[in-house]
Each structure stands twice: as C-alpha cells, then as structure tokens.
Amino acid sequence: MALYAELHRHLGGSVVPRILWRYFQRSDANLADRFPEYASFEDFYTKPRNTLDEYLELHTLVEGVQTTQTLPYFISRLIRGAYIFENLAYLEIRYTPYLRTSPQLSQSERIDQMAEIVEIVGKATQTKEYPIITSQILCMHSRLPYEVNRAIVELAAQSKGYVCAVDLAGGDAHYAERLDEFVELYALARSLDLKTTGHVYETQSGCYPELIPYLMRIGHGIQIPLQYPELLSELAANGQCLEVCPTTYLKTGTLEDIRQLKLVFDRCFDAGVDIAICTDNAGLHNVRLPFEYENLLTYDIIGFEELQACQDAAFRHAFAWPYQQRPASLLNGLFQASINDTGNGSLGREFAEIAD
C-alpha cells in the first residue's frame, strides 16, 4: 500500500461540497434556502474564479461555520476522508485560528480564545479509528492587524504539542504595504524555534524576495521557476521545498492550462529544488491528492520517477513526521522481516513487489 503526505491543506477549504451542503441543510437555514439543491451548490462552490482574491472569498463561507461547537464535526469528516479515500499517513492542516473565534468578542478576547481553537483542532485530529499523524500550521493573515498576527506566532510557539509551523496567507498581493511587518514576524518565529512556510510567489503580484530567507518551505512558489529561475540555485542550496498545488492555479486564474506546470517541475528538478505535490483546498476543488498525482501523469507533466521523488520529498520536508523513512519503505521492511521469519519467500516477494 502506498501512503502519502499532504503538506498544504487549508481547514477552510478541506470540507468536501456534499458534507458542507448537508451541514447547511441541517444547521443553517439561511444557507439552506440559498442552496436548496446540491447540484447548484457544488457548481457554485467548485467553479473556477477569475482571481485569487475572488477565490479566497469562498473561505469566508466555511470560516463562518467552523466554530468551537462545529470544528470537531468538520475535522472528523476531513480525517475520515483523508484516510479512506486518499491513503494519507501524514497531514498538516493550516488555518487562521482568529477567524474561528467568536466575532461577538472583542479583539483581545478573540486572541485569548485562539488557544481553545488550537486545542479543539488538536484533539479532534487524534483518532484511533483513522490513524493519521497530523499537525497544525497556524496562518498569519494579510488582512489581520499586527497585534493578532503576532499573537498567532506566539501561540504557535506555546502550542508545539499541536502546532508544527507558522504560515502567512490571505492573498500574496496584499503583503507589499506591510512587508517589513511580516519580515519582523517571521524573524520572531525563527527566534522562537518555529518552522516556517508562506504563501509567496503564487501569483505575479506576490513575489517578495525579502521573505525567502525566513521560509523553510514555500507555499506554491510557482512564479520562481516561471519568472525568476535565477533564484532556484539559492533555494536548492538552502534545502527549501515548494508546495505545488496543481488544481489551485486553474481555479484562481493564475494559470490557463495545467500543462504550464511542466516548466515548473522541469526547472526545479534540473536545479535540485524539491517539490511536494499538495491539494491546497481539496474540498473546494472536489479533488483529492491521488487525483492531483494522476492529473500530472496524464498530462505528461511528470513521469512516475518524478512522482515518487515528489512523494519522497513530501515526507522529507514534513515538519512533524517522526520517522526517517516514508511509510512504503517501512512496509517493505516489515514484508522483508516476514520473509525472513516465515521462509515463505515466494509469497513474501510478491507482497514486496506490490509495496514497491
């Protein structure tokens, strides 16, 4: 069995359309009236948008219903689907905790409530029924004030049992006016021994070389190989990894054709820059991780050797994966041990070949 790692999945975009629609029908009369039929809701929820900003507005639809009361429900569905349908062994869930707090509270009260949100998410992901190793990435947000973003970094440092890293989200075109502020916050994160990633170089309006030195991984980053390939040697030397989410760029209007990603993969492989293939918003896209793999193969963007290299890179760059090897390698070791113990070489070799 091949087991995978997902390094870039947003909690707000992780809920698949049917589960979200059923929740509306049971619990939200206004949204139930707005979308009485599932087909119309799926079309609205998953259709491509013209810009990244327009696309990100959809997150507000989900953030408003992901509360202290409902988060366990949504996360249990996320973990179940990830285990059963995606064969995930490892999952990093990223989100902005402030946007799950009660809007009726003051800013300082909402900052205080963020710790409760992190604990709720952490406990909800720990299930024996679907044994996936999970961790949280807390996202600063380009449209939140400095005080809130600093509190997010500090909370991440205080919650390392649940949290593995910090991120910056909210649309990379909006960082420019506050770039010094975000550099300061990333420097703070590194000083607190936090791991870091960030949504940069996703669009042509979001290219900030000032942030690159602070990032251990780069969220998306496709404009580096497309527009600034001279930076690839620096990324390779620093061991930085791109989190490439193929379907996203079609949904946001960033790319017109998925085959444009071939140049991204080719230039990164040639330069020795690792890529982890991710979904970003699996529910919002109605696309799971194995389909992202299949799509890249179908369009001859990568081959099977490159796919395996990307799968290996995902575990190698996972912030909280506790083992030296990926699951397939661990399974091969178990099969080999079984061969040695039982002497059933023929059957054991067949299983080992399947695991390969």
Automatic annotation (TrEMBL):
Q: Which cofactor does it need?
A: Zn(2+)
The answer to keyword Metal-binding applying to this record is: yes
Enzyme class of the recorded protein, top EC level: hydrolase
Q: Which UniProt keywords apply?
A: Hydrolase, Metal-binding, Zinc
The residues covered by the Adenosine deaminase domain are 5-320
User: Gene3D superfamilies attached here?
Assistant: Metal-dependent hydrolases
UniProt record similarity statement = Belongs to the metallo-dependent hydrolases superfamily. Adenosine and AMP deaminases family.
Protein's UniProt name: adenosine deaminase
UniProt organism field: Aerosakkonema funiforme FACHB-1375
